Amino acid sequence: MTTTQPAATAERPLSKSRAPAWFQEYGVYAAVATLLVFNAFFTEHFLTVDNLRTQLIQVAPIVIVALGMALVIGTEGVDLSVGSAMALSAALLPLYLGYGLVPALFIALLAGAAVGAVNGTLVSVVGLQPIVATLALFVGGRGIALVVADGQLKQITNPDVLALGTGSFLGVPLVVLIAGVLTLAVAFLVQRTTFGRQVVAIGGNRSAAALAGLPVKRVLTGVYVLCGVLAALAGILATARLTASDPSSLGNLMELSAITAVVVGGTPLSGGSIRVLGTVAGALLMQLLTATLVKHNLPDSTAQMAQAVIIIIAVYVARERRSR
Amino acid sequence: MKPPEAAASAAAGRQSPAPPPVLEARGVSKHFPGVVALDDVSFTLEAGETHALVGENGAGKSTLIKVLTGVHRPDGGELRLSGQEVHFARPFEAQQAGISTIYQEVNLVPLLSVARNVFLGREPRNRFRLIDFPRMNSEAAALLDGFGVRVDPRRPLHTLGVGAQQMVALARAVSVNAQVVVMDEPTSSLEPREVETLFGVIADLRRQGIAVVYVSHRMDELYRVCDRVTVLRDGRHIHTGDLAELDRMQLVSMMLGREITEVRRHGVTSFSQEGHDVERRPVLKAEGLARRHQLDGISLNLHPGEVLGLGGLLGSGRSETAKALAGALTLDAGKISIDGSVQRRHSSASAIRAGISLLPEDRKAEGVVPGLSVRENIVLAALPRLSRAGIVSRGRQDRIVEIFMKRLRIKASSPEQKVGELSGGNQQKVLLARWLCLEPKVLLLDEPTRGIDVGAKAEVQALIDELAQQGLAVLLISSDIEELIEGADRILVLRSGASAGELTGDQVTEGALLEALADHSPAAPEAGTTENAGEEAAR
């Protein structure tokens, strides 16, 4: 046993310097705060209600998808099909609006659940590697969406749907409110529910979890279903925001934005730990970074390079966490 | 202990003048962080001999093999190949020097063809320097024919059975002009017919003057094919000599480090000396558990209040039996009933529901979730019971965790400390707590005290005693002979996945156990064990 240490050192070892531990825990929040402070001094019209509102509205769909992605990554998996799930729900939404808002939303979310169920079954029952299993619907899901929508972009005129995109409650945009509520819900799910604790345990040591009698297959499938439903919801909100259903480009590269948010937020790709608030902060960090650079008239390419640096730092820090 | 030089000269005495041994390790040491894997070990291998390398878990066999084959570099000592000192930086260099290895698990490329695997890295070329497939295929077919494998060499390797794959590995190892072939548990996945072929190949190798290092736990095989034996224990060299001069009993006692003449019983462990009050009706009854290559019709009864020891050497099927009882291993045949009701569904979850808990052997891989806290590890299996509507009650968790941390004296800075940061002994106690908080009827303990410090070991042993007194049925697997003798009321001895005898009452002594392990006369069946014995005969 390499983990054998003298019993006397049951205390947390302090030999490692404290800075990296602190940085692992709070680095992403500190980075967001630093960025805000920087902008307060050096960027005109940044810390205004209007601008922050815009930033939050833009980041909300990413946050919603990333929450599901965080759960999947917590099981040592990954879901590449989230963008396609968004497109599929966007394609289905206008088709069923004739029956009313609720049935249409239900059908759209059901499509996300179906995508997740397929992914989950391929991973847990068939035993495919998550990256391969979800690649199938990454490719195929968008194809189905285009078939469903007849390859067309459809204007949305239903006032209820449009209200989802533009409405606000007590001054907070509905989209942002939904993302916020979901963040709290997923945090509760992870911290306090049987399901959430089982997700983390399965990610941390799958064979130990199986020997402890955990329903590994059911939990894994459930995680992918949740991820699919959250992606479908993000697809609905983005569609409402766009006032059009655009299955050919909605959610393109969303899987990468979501994975980035999760990783930058400090959730290790090796599973066994899920940082929900960190994920939100990760999404915010990437959003604010891009906005800052754009406001300073730097080209998009600079933002991309800056993002790359952040990702590498985040993965490096997470690696330190792992090796402890 | 015989000095290695003496043994070497004895074996070399057949030829004169004595050529240097084909492979020799002199005073080799190897340290890993916190562990001395090899301590001044010497090993000589003569041309044309088949040399058994034996020892229990942690004896240093694997490390020695890895040093000989260039996987590890020794910290001290030297390696000599035909008298010349050699240093292998990589396994490839050892292969180039004529040392081939066949590992327990086949290490070939499953998706390449059989012929490509045989000739990987040294494929015959045509005049365009491209692989000459027709020649390679026909040569591979001819070569494999000698190993009793008649398959189309163009087939992908993974379409072959495990035994045939093992033969391909063997063919590859032998055909690279090997002087030394190291075989690590070569028969563990072979059918009896394939084992015979393997022995035929070994006889051929001997005729060609190729030396074989043969690692196996199967006594029958060792005595059939090996000329000499080297025994390792706890990283040290114990004995080297002609195998024919040792009987099985002597060999086993050297492996386990017990003197046959001096069988003591003076309470080295923390078990109380009295037996337990055992109820007559079994709580768990297993009949004819069978699984290919691993279990061959094992039957056992486990009564409330009893500690049943499961004895056997490495690879005898002890852990597999425990896993099968806990629903974690699919069975080809067999029936398990708990409190008289037959288990229909065979899964960990259903076994746990029925009241069976298994403390697995490999604490790190199958036990702890290192990134989670002590609290979360303890309640892991009990989560559904501590929840209402899927929401876990923190209060109930904390109560259980407090009770068990106190009762098992788990040393952690707080229940929120990560389990990965604890010592091995405390990790083991956390796992025991995980199972005990389920209030099981049957507790299966697979090596519960391995790799934990002395203090924790005594505490765990005392706990096992206490649990049995409270009426729990305990199955105890241990390689520690003293632990087994003093802890168990009765010992079932396994060999090659089948029961090889049972020790009850006064028979539970070191001498009797060693004899049973060494396959002398199995302990005479007594009243009360006739059930098992009867089934043995019926098969």
TrEMBL record, chain A:
Bilayer topology term: Multi-pass membrane protein
Keywords of the record: Cell membrane, Membrane, Transmembrane, Transmembrane helix
Keyword Magnesium on entry: no
Cellular compartments annotated: Cell membrane
A Pfam match: BPD_transp_2
Highest taxon in the source lineage: Bacteria
Chain segments annotated as transmembrane: 26-43, 55-74, 104-125, 131-149, 161-190, 223-244, 301-318
Record bears the keyword Transmembrane helix: yes
Protein name per the record: ABC transporter permease
Organism: Streptomyces gossypii
Lineage, broadest ranks: Bacteria, Bacillati, Actinomycetota, Actinomycetes, Kitasatosporales
UniProtKB/TrEMBL annotation, chain B:
Ranges of Low complexity composition bias in the record: 1-16, 522-532
Any Pfam family: ABC_tran
Classification via Gene3D superfamilies: P-loop containing nucleotide triphosphate hydrolases
MF terms in GO: ATP binding
Organism: Streptomyces gossypii
PANTHER family: CARBOHYDRATE TRANSPORT ATP-BINDING PROTEIN MG119-RELATED (PTHR43790), GALACTOFURANOSE TRANSPORTER ATP-BINDING PROTEIN YTFR (PTHR43790:SF9)
Region Disordered, annotated ranges: 1-24, 520-539
Domain called ABC transporter: residue spans: 23-259, 278-521
Assigned keywords, A-Z: ATP-binding, Nucleotide-binding, Repeat, Transport
Superkingdom per UniProt: Bacteria
Protein name: Sugar ABC transporter ATP-binding protein
